[in-house]
């Protein structure tokens, strides 16, 4: 027997057109001069997410400054560069516009603005002592869920290590998931971020910290992704598929924010740190291999996953049905065009040992349902190679 806590943003807008109320919400939060945290691509997009957000701010009479240096797998440097703009422009709050990289970069700026010392010294769980400035996260990809989570994932370029600052203080005040901001996401990024969301849902559903509240979210997320990711990748303008993927990624984010993740993320973080591999691609390649390894920890739940993903498990034994879940994950990744092996992504065998050791120390490793040793993780890297 044990109890659980459940954490998320206090206000969450979702659905087509919701971003129109961004400016009004800034007023309610008494934001005087938010720092917009985004990248140059989104900033330059005609009628894109940044333009729509700025329109809403202008209508509400909110002044702002912009930091547009967000990179994939955000680095510590991106946070300090953003902090400089935040200070020079006398900002009092933060609005992140983009996918997980923008949100994590923005959280990093908020931490750097309110905490002394280097950001790396705050790696770990509940290390933050001070309140961050108010953060609003406007999400533009159906993937990381960072707009509703307490995780801030950053990369230390010197050590090539990704580290996570996990704290309730990181949770944005408000999240926006407007699928109309996602219609122009390219197919490859849609596939990768969608597989990231699927990994969140599956890892949280089978996590040792899983609970009935998170399960409900994870189950619905798995169902939505299984039926909507292929159509969203095939035609990005499919509004229904985009809308359902936005809901799925929000649900999966809420689930893993509380039920935590597992070895897929623990290992994927090493691939992101070592090779700057896109997070969703790393997860998608590792997911079937790691979950096949995890099958025996909870065959019933894996059999359920097979069913949620549309597999016919009638008359199958529980274990046979569980194996169908792994097939379904592999088929979905293939259908949306994810590379099949780590080798194709430039991974080197000689790094397996180092990455396996670091993966077992990653904050996500402790909630994996099967307990492995370094040699097991090396073997998983080898199988996915
Ligand atoms: Fe993720």
Strand content: 5-15%
Bound molecules: fe (ii) ion
The whole-angstrom Rg is: 20 Å
As a percent range, the share of helical residues equals 40-55%
Number of strands: 9
Assigned CATH superfamily of the largest domain: Dehydroquinate synthase-like - alpha domain
Report on the architecture of this protein.
With 385 residues, the protein is an alpha/beta fold. It folds into 2 domains: 11-181, Rossmann fold (3-Layer(aba) Sandwich), CATH 3.40.50.1970; 187-384, Dehydroquinate synthase-like, alpha domain, CATH 1.20.1090. 50% of the residues lie in helices and 10% in strands. The chain has helices at residues 22-28, 40-44, 49-59, 76-88, 100-114, 187-206, 212-234, 239-259, 263-275, 279-294, 299-308, 318-335, 352-361, 374-384; strands at residues 11-14, 34-37, 65-67, 93-98, 124-125, 135-139, 151-156, 161-166, 174-177. It has a 6-stranded parallel sheet, with helices on both faces. It has a 3-stranded mixed sheet with strand order 5-8-7. β7 and β8 form a beta hairpin. The protein is globular, with a radius of gyration of 20 Å. The chain starts with 10 loop residues before the first strand and ends with a helix. The protein binds fe (ii) ion (FE2). The site of fe (ii) ion has 6 residues, from α6 and α10.
């Amino acid at each position: 027997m044990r109890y659980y806590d459940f954490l998320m943003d206090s206000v969450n807008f979702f659905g087509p057109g919701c971003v129109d109320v961004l400016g009004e919400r800034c007023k309610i939060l008494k934001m005087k001069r938010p720092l917009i945290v985004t990248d140059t691509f989104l900033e330059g997009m005609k009628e894109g997410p940044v333009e729509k957000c700025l329109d809403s701010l202008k209508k509400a009479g909110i002044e702002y400054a912009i930091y547009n240096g967000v990179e994939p797998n955000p680095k510590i440097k991106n946070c300090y560069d953003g902090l400089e703009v935040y200070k020079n422009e006398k900002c009092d709050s933060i609005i992140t516009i983009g996918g997980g990289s923008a949100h994590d970069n923005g959280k990093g700026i908020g931490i750097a603005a309110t905490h002394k010392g280097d950001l790396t010294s705050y790696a770990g769980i509940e290390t933050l002592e001070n309140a961050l400035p108010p953060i609003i996260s406007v999400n533009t990809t159906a993937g990381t869920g960072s707009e509703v989570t307490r995780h801030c994932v950053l990369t230390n370029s010197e050590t090539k290590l990704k580290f996570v600052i996990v704290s309730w203080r990181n949770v944005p005040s408000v999240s926006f998931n407007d699928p109309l901001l996602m219609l122009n996401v390219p197919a490859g990024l849609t596939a990768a971020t969608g597989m990231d969301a699927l990994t969140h849902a599956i890892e949280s559903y089978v996590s040792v910290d899983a609970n009935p509240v998170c399960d409900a979210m994870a189950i619905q997320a798995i169902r939505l992704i299984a039926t909507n990711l292929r159509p969203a990748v095939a035609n990005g303008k499919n509004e229904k598929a985009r809308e359902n993927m936005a809901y799925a990624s929000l649900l999966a984010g809420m689930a893993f924010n509380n039920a935590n993740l597992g070895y897929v993320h623990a290992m994927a973080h090493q691939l992101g740190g070592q090779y700057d591999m896109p997070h969703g691609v790393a997860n998608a390649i590792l997911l079937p291999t790691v979950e096949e390894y995890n099958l025996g920890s909870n065959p019933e739940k894996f059999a359920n996953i097979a069913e949620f993903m549309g597999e016919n498990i009638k008359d199958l034994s529980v274990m046979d049905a569980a194996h169908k879940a792994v097939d379904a994950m592999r088929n979905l990744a293939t259908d949306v065009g994810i590379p099949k092996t780590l080798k194709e992504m430039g991974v080197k065998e000689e790094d397996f040992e180092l990455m396996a050791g670091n993966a077992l120390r990653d904050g996500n490793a402790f909630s994996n349902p099967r307990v492995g040793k370094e040699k097991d993780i090396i073997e998983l890297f080898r199988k996915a190679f």
